[in-house]
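Database export, one record per block. Field names are fixed; values are copied verbatim from the stored entry.
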Amino acid sequence: MSTEGHDPSAGGDAGPDPTPDPAPTESAAAPEPPPPPAPDPTPEPEPDPSPPPPPPPPPAAAESTAAAPESSAPAASFDFAAVPRSVWISAGGALVLLISVFFSWYTATASVSLPGGGSISRSVSGSGWDSGDGAKLVFLLALVILVAWAVDLFADSVTLPFPAAMVALVLGAAALLVCVIKFFSKPGGSDLTTLGGTLHISVSVAWGLYVAILAAIAVIVGAYMHMNEASS
């Protein structure tokens, strides 16, 4: 008798199927992480190089050169219009007095009488500088007066032992006295007549000495005016 129809394993009371459960479905599985972003085709900029070092400080010579215009600023800011007129008169007179020493102070004229009548004359001019030590003293006095006014106007840090106006007044009077003496005491003394009246030599005052006398008077007047302005 065949046993195919009576296989006990085919009964209803068969045991549990030992086959494991199938793998969970995709819906029950954990979510996968998102894919990484695609790389940017643009190349990243390279980092900036280190900043350049600061420039070295300028040399000391350049600093002193740059500071030179500042030191000359006070001289450029001097106001000539603020100088009193009396100072201009006295200082200008001293300058003219200084120069007048090199002008013609005397004129020597020599004339020769001819036997048949008539005469021949010749004149020579001489500067005050060549006339003697008196003119050199006038030059020195005028120079000191100019220096005194220059110190009074431009050198504020220098203190004169006497005011510049007083120096100009005293030295200007001394220069005027010397010029007056030179006016009356001409070189060579009086006119000379020699060789039996045929040669006559004369010395006369020239225009330069007149200029010196007027310049000395201007020095005195300007200084006196300035002293009155300072005292008022």
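Remark 1: The radius of gyration is 58 Å.
Remark 2: The chain is about 45% helix and 10% strand.
End of record.
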